[in-house]
Amino acid sequence: MKLQIGETIRQLRLRDGRTQEDLAEALGISPQAVSRWEKGGAYPDMEAVPAIANYFGVTIDMLFGYEGDREQKIDALTERIYAMNWENNGRDVSMDACIQLARESLAEYPSNEKLMLALASVLYNAGYVRYGEHHLTDGDGYDILDAERHRTYGEWQEAIRLYEKLLISMPEGELRQKAVRELVQLYLNTGASGKALDIVAGLPSLQDCRELMRPLTCDGKERARLQGEAVLAAVHCTSGLLIGGILANGSHLTPAEAVCTVKNAIAMYDLVCTDGNYGVYHSSLACLHLYLSFHCWRADDRDGAFAALDRALEYARICDAMRRNGQVEVAYTAPLLRLVTEKRDVRSEAGIAAELPEDWPWWCDTGNQVVKAEMIKDPRWDDWVKRCGESKK
User: Fold this and answer.
1) Could you give the CA distance from residue 282 to residue 12 in angstroms, rounded to a whole number?
2) Upper half-sphere CA count for residue 274 (Cβ side, 13 Å)
3) What is the pTM of this model?
4) Structural domain harbouring 270
């Protein structure tokens, strides 16, 4: 294979407005040598290659024309790691293999931020899958995390170290935001609230966030579209905050008050999506109705509990159908308190609907197992589970 390093040097030199003499002077060589490189008559000495890459601010791989191939391989590995990680969402299907793949990929491309973040996210998930998130009740009756127990999770401790390393140099963007979200959660889980606050203090305020600022960048039809997306994003996050309020208040809310709050979280979507088309948020509504069924049962509204389960199944089926038809890429909501929809659902080929019985009630809440033990005695539970399973056929 003929190396194209000379042509690459020429293109980079023209890009930066440099002459052959400029490059030659920086490298301590003759302009004629640079000319021969660019014409393909000779190649730079290997000792000069790092200096050339540094001069133009590019990688050595890019100089040799390998950057595209390298990035494609890294992206393919990253996608495969996240796909396996989603398959392990909520249960250990192949967690060891997923961690091994992430470690081997990072070993092949040391210090690559995408792969380092992928490994951190896998370890983040592994802690939940293998040991779970455990809660306690403080002296005032409020829900708190069992930080002492969580600190024993080796996976979370390693993930924290990786996230901290990434945030030293990772530029602003979606990858950094993902690292921040997950690190803040792990800091909370392990009792390091002060560190979480330090990170959060450096984030932009709500009115300066991307979703609310984007409509200000254009006008006309495009602005109207972005305004709609901003409203939906605001609804989505506010709904998540309402659910978080239920979990945080613990015993201070009666079952009836919790039911009212979940219904309010659901109603917010209806206020915006007046045509009944919730798009990517059908999955969120499925999760909200799972949680509603839990609190309806606690409030002695047995019929309401199963009506909520039916609605959850309805929304899940719609989302599955939209995904199969290629109408949406987003198909499932992230776990725990964060109502943030992921870009791609690769969790199960069976679809969301088939997973509902296992995911119930979606959010970790005290009394889950007690309520479930009661609900499964009702014949309507088996019927609902059967209909969920039929959704994958």
Assistant:
1) 48
2) 3
3) 0.68
4) 239-390
